[in-house]
Amino acid sequence: MDGIQLKKEDDKKEKKEEEVVHLRREIGLLPAVCFIIGTVVGSGIFIAPKGVLINSGSVGLSLLVWALCGVLSLFGALCYAELGTSFTKSGGHYTYLLETLGPLPAFLRLWVEFIFIRPAVASYVSLAFGTYVVEPFFAPCAAPEVLIKLVSILGLTVVVAINCWSVTLASRTQITLTFIKMFALVLIIVPGMIALAKGKTENFQNGFEVDSLTLDRLPLAFYNGLYAYGGWFYLNFVTEEVINPNRNIPLAIICSMVTVTVCYVLVNVAYYTMMTPAELLLSDAVAVTFANRALHGMASVIPFLVALSCLGALNGGFFGAPRMLFVGAREGHWPPIFSMIHIRRRTPLPAVLLLYPLAVLMLITEEIYQLINFASFARWFFIALATLGMLIHRYRFPLHPRPFKVPLIIAVTFTVVCFFIVGLSLYSDPWNTGWSCALTLTGVPVYYVTVYRYRLPHRWSRIFNYLSKQLQILLEVAQQEVQTY
Description:
AA/rel_permease1, globular, AminoAcid_Transporter, mainly alpha, 20 helices, two-stranded antiparallel sheet
């Protein structure tokens, strides 16, 4: 009888632990690798390698730029692997700036990410999804703009619903979409390699002609390349949900970035095998032009695969970015409602839902193209600050546990290159960079009024608290009951 009673008590205890509200560690090595690859590989590699070619001036140099962009992205990812294992909180950029440089830079990163950058990027990617779904049905005529936007909003809604429903479903969706987009890359690489093996090398002869190269345009080639590699930092947004992060974060980052770099270079080799540089520059959708040339019967499949690739990038963004807002709210830098999770689904529901109306609004009003131009400056500036903060933290706290430590030369090289990119953008595009800087600085008075010294009138605070309580009841969300870091 005593044994039966003990078993019942253990069952009750286990049930209580299951019912505790907190984010679970459900992301293993394969989902982590797929999460990074699925977020990095979006529409860029399929439609716009010509940005690298037109600014580098030659086939050989453009391939070198693709390889160097991959190496630089790997350097940055390795720095973030150290940061992710040194600071076990989720939140990515925000957390690392908070831990190394203080609350104001961290708040500004949070501010610019969720007011401007993240909704703009989500709108841009969903619009690319809608374009590739709709346009094949209307070719060679132009597709109705309203229909493209409706399909874009539908894709956005599906991704938001998946990320609200469960972490497991979002993770499995990302794995599936990653395998589909890797299949698309293989579909391009294999015919290109076969043609190359058969001796189709005329486009690579005199590949390093530098007559058309100008040094002021070469950085623009790197901008295009680095944009295609963007997203290597997303796993750091969900550190608290990664199983055995000290092992899986560095391993996932290295595996995924090496895979992406090799694939990107081979895809570009395949493009140049089947198309001359002039033909590539004339194409607005390089992958579709390649498919018409090399795949014939399967050419119609490519736009569909590119659309799914965009959906994967969108899913990765909505899976990772809300965790930054979740952590920011937990630290008191955002309203507390956004630090809550659904009591049954265990997803950061309010943080995910906040992005949705902002992204839809930008998609409808078409302000995204202007905001996308602002995104590069803010992104690289704060990444540079995060890696600089890592170096400062190393110097100030040499005994702090660092399960993974990146070589100093890699960290310094990456930080210097990031600041160089930021400085160059100030010189080459002062208007957009100036606006980006101004938009970022609008967060300073907000920080001092709402965070540093809470100055909102008592009546406003009372109304705000009442609305937050009602929203919490409506969404069925609560604060975490267990510390997950």
